[in-house]
Every structure is written in C-alpha cells, then in structure tokens.
Design a protein that fits this description.
2 domains; alpha/beta; TIM Barrel; single chain; 8-stranded parallel barrel
Length: 499
C-alpha cells in the first residue's frame, strides 16, 4: 500500500501552543491519594508526594494541568484546602460518593505542579458557588499582598502569588449529573458576572467558558450559542469534552474516532465564529479541549463501587495497544487544529483513565497510551504545516472514506528540523509513505521510532512493559522527499534534520 503527503514551508496552520499537551488531576478515585500523593511511600518527599510518580510526569512532559475537577469541582469549597492540614474538614463528595479529607489543596498542588514543570489551570465552582468565591480565590492566588485573601495566603506559607494564568468557569454545567446543573441562560449570566469580577481582581488572567458536556447532549450547539451571548467578550476560550471507546470491539470504527473529534472541533469553532459575526467582534475565540481520552474499560466495574470510601479505585482503565493507536490519532487531530485548539488536557494523569498507574505502597508504571503522548509532548513543537494526504481509504460503521494513514508534519524552527507523527490504521498492510518537503532542503533522518507489532489487546503491567516503542529502520531522505515505511497498526515518530 502506498500513501503520499505534501507539505510546503510557506503553507502553515499555526504554532503549537505548549498547553495543547496538558493533563488533568481531579480529586476522584486514586488520582490524588495514592496517585500523586502518598505519605509513607518509600519515595515520598517531605510533603507526601511520590517522587517516582513525579519522575514519570516529568518524562511525560505534560505542560499544563487542570485542577481540581471535573465533577468534583461543582461541590468543592476551595477554602477547605488551605491552612493547617489537621484543621481541614472531611467532606462527602457527592460527585463520586467518596470522602474527601482535603490533605491536598491549593498550596500543596501548586507546589507539586511547579516541581513537575507544569502550569496550573485552576477551575472554579459554579455549581454550588458563584461570584463571591470566584473573586476571592483569584485574590488569594494572584494578588501580591495587602488585602485579606492575599495576606491569608502569606499567612498560610506562600509569600509570592501563585500567579495562575488560566481559569475554568465551572465544569459540564448542562449535565444532569452535575451538582448545581444549570440552563444555558443561568450559566451564561453567572459565568459572565464571575468573569467580570475575576478580571477586575487580575486583568491578566485568561478564562475558559464551559461548553456543553458532550456532542451527544441534546443541549449541544444551542448551549454554546446561548452562553456565548453572555460571555463572548469576557472569555478567551470555550471548552470541549469527549471520550472514546471500543465497546463493540470494532477496530476499524474505533481507530476512526479521530474523525469524530475533528468534526466536533470544527463544529464548535463554527459556533464561536457565528457569535463573532453576530457581535461584530474583532476577537477570535479559541478552544480548550480540556477533557479527552479513551474511557470505557472500567465502566462496568465502577457501577459496583461501595459509596463513601476514601480514595477508592474509580475509572482505572487498563489500556491496550489499540488504545495507544487511537490516542496517537487524537493527538494528530489536535495538532492539525492548533489554529483553534490552544489548550488540550488528556483526562486524567495518574490512575484515573490515565497514562500513569500506581500501586499503593508499591510500583509505578507507564500504560500503553503514555508513549504517543510523551513523543508528542517532548517533540511536537514549532509550526504545524498544512498538508495534502493521498491515502487509500476504508468505510466502517460510523464513517466513510477513512484514510489508512493519519499524519501531521511540524516545522521546529529553533531546532531546524521537521517532526512527523503518523498512524497506519491498516491491520494487515505496511504503507510506503512518501512525504514531499517542499522548500525545506532536508538533510537526514535523525530519529525514527515506532509502536508496532503488538497484539491489539496487549497491555502493560507493573512487571512488564509489553507495549513500548522501539527504534525503526528504513526511513530515508533524498532530495526533498522522505520515504517512510509504516508498519501495519503502528504509531510513528520521525525527525528530519534540515540543511
């Protein structure tokens, strides 16, 4: 099978915003407790955070972490997580029917995020709370000193402001499962008023308005249009959430789910542009895809969880090889839309539908989906190039004319190189992939690695990294062409040095 891609130095999409390689830590399950934080663990630091987990988070190179939720957010009082730990309240978390002891709060999480080189994306509760709490938390986090909340932060041990730049205005507020769910009019008005006072406290912050919970929601599109009537001039981003699964065990349809993600992104961007035209605005609203991942393996097990436990295992999907291939396709799709998607958060980071898994008191390991994300987050920087792919296609249950080859090319000007990410969706056929690099004068292939050759249901465990990348051979450069062999069912990363 043969496929061809053409890119040109003068035809670009946009620069990659590092925040596109974000993640998400919610107070649910074992994401925080026995995930990133476990006092008494042999690798725990003086504050109780696991150093072995920190090492893998740094290796993953996630740049941006949304916190503290998620559904947990809509019943959360941020004040519960400040001050002496011994005096913090234990609360019933109605979102996940667990007990939250608030050992980890604002100070602890912001300190941890700094250690793993990640920017904090703070979310505010617009379920049970509103304008007053919104302005107060910004004052606590970002005002230097001389006011009640900034001085309270200093009293609690942090002299300098946290200087949190990006804030989410609630979470999935059209969902019936959400604490304090709202109509679009109710949420739009509240979000606009919160945005207004938050920026009065700190005019430098950027805000994310809460889009519909999912594309399948009956509120989708009308929700976005209504809430943007109120918030368009107050916010910089609109959020999108989407999860994918292979419940029918249909590999062809499963690996085509990135087509759905691409359609979703373009639909929401169109709604934003409609509102831009309606308001005669000069501002283009960007997108924050702040929840995306594969999620379906653990659903049946989670239905049987006993309520009111402390940090029980919830949403602990064990990912396989086919999941890693889809995650690769989803990453490529986000990059191809980087002119509008500036923020994206794989949900979540540790244990809960996550690339990193831990054992309480024991080991930490990389799930299969760790690898494509790490490849992208460590290498996928620069300017994404517009491209034309000529590839054989296939039809499946949900989509027609799905290309066997999904790919994107990025020009890293600082390193003077081209980075190619590619997935071959074919179960049987290798692909001879020819890439024309017009205007670049390529010199040589400096790295070619692939994730391939595994059983589609193969998983990783604490004892065995069955699914892991390997160095590959056969990629060659001649004149302005890259010849790239793609193994059947493979994720690939190639770097080309330029003259």
């Amino acid at each position: 099978m043969k496929a061809k891609m053409t890119v040109n130095k003068n035809f670009t999409i946009a620069k990659v915003d590092p925040r596109i390689y974000g993640s998400f830590v919610e107070h649910m399950g074992r994401s925080v407790y026995s995930g990133i934080y476990e006092p008494g663990h042999k690798t725990a630091d003086s504050l109780g955070f696991r150093n072995d987990v920190k090492e893998l988070v740094r290796e993953l190179n996630t740049s941006f972490i949304r916190y503290p939720g998620g559904n947990f957010l809509s019943g959360y009082n941020w004040e519960d997580g400040i001050g002496p730990r011994a005096q913090r309240p234990r609360r019933l978390d109605l979102a996940w029917k667990t007990v939250e002891n608030n050992e980890v709060g604002l100070h602890e999480f912001c300190g941890w995020a700094k250690e793993v080189n990640a920017e904090v994306n703070m979310a505010i509760n617009l379920g049970t709370r509103g304008v007053d709490a919104a302005r107060n938390i910004v004052e606590y986090c970002n005002h230097k000193s001389g006011s009640y909340y900034s001085d309270l932060r200093r009293k609690n041990g942090t002299e300098e402001p946290f200087a949190i730049k990006t804030w989410c205005l609630g979470n999935e507020m059209d969902g019936h499962w959400q604490i304090g769910a709202k109509t679009a009019e109710e949420y739009g008005r509240l979000a606009a008023e919160c945005a207004k006072v938050m920026k009065w406290v700190d005019s430098s912050i950027e805000l994310v308005a809460c889009g519909s919970s999912a594309r399948r929601m009956p509120t989708f599109a009308s929700w976005e249009a209504t809430i943007l009537e109120h918030t368009y001039e107050h916010v910089e981003y609109l959020s999108l959430h989407s999860y994918y699964g292979n419940q029918k065990n249909d590999l062809k349809t499963y690996l085509a789910q990135s087509v759905d993600m691409d359609n979703f992104i373009k639909s929401v961007a169109s709604i934003c542009d409609y509102m831009k035209a309606k308001k005669r605005s000069k501002k283009t609203l960007h997108l924050s895809f702040d929840e995306w991942n594969v999620w379906y393996h653990s659903r049946e097990k989670d239905e049987n969880n006993e309520p009111w436990q402390y940090a029980p295992p919830i949403l602990e999907d064990v990912y396989n090889f086919e999941d890693a291939l889809l995650v690769g396709c989803l990453l490529i799709t986000l990059l191809k839309n980087c002119d509008r998607v500036k923020i994206a958060c794989m949900a979540q980071l540790v244990n809960v539908i996550a690339p990193i898994m831990t054992e309480p008191g024991g080991d930490v390991w990389r799930q299969t989906i760790f690898y494509p994300f790490a490849h992208a987050a460590n290498n996928g920087f620069g300017t994404v190039l517009r491209h034309n792919i000529e590839s054989p296609t296939y039809d499946c249950e949900e989509f027609e004319k799905v290309p066997f080859v999904e790919s994107v090319a990025i020009h890293n000007e600082e390193k003077n190189e081209i980075i190619i990410f590619a997935v071959n969706r074919s179960t049987d056929d290798a692909v001879e992939f020819e890439i024309n690099l017009q205007g670049f004068n390529p010199k040589s292939v400096t790295e070619f690695c692939e994730l391939s050759g595994h059983d589609i249901k193969a998983t990783n465990t604490k004892k065995s990294a069955t699914v892991a990348p390997k160095n590959a051979k056969g990629a060659t450069v001649q004149n302005d062409k890259l010849e790239l062999p793609l193994a059947p069912l493979s994720w690939n990363m190639v770097k080309i040095a330029l003259n």
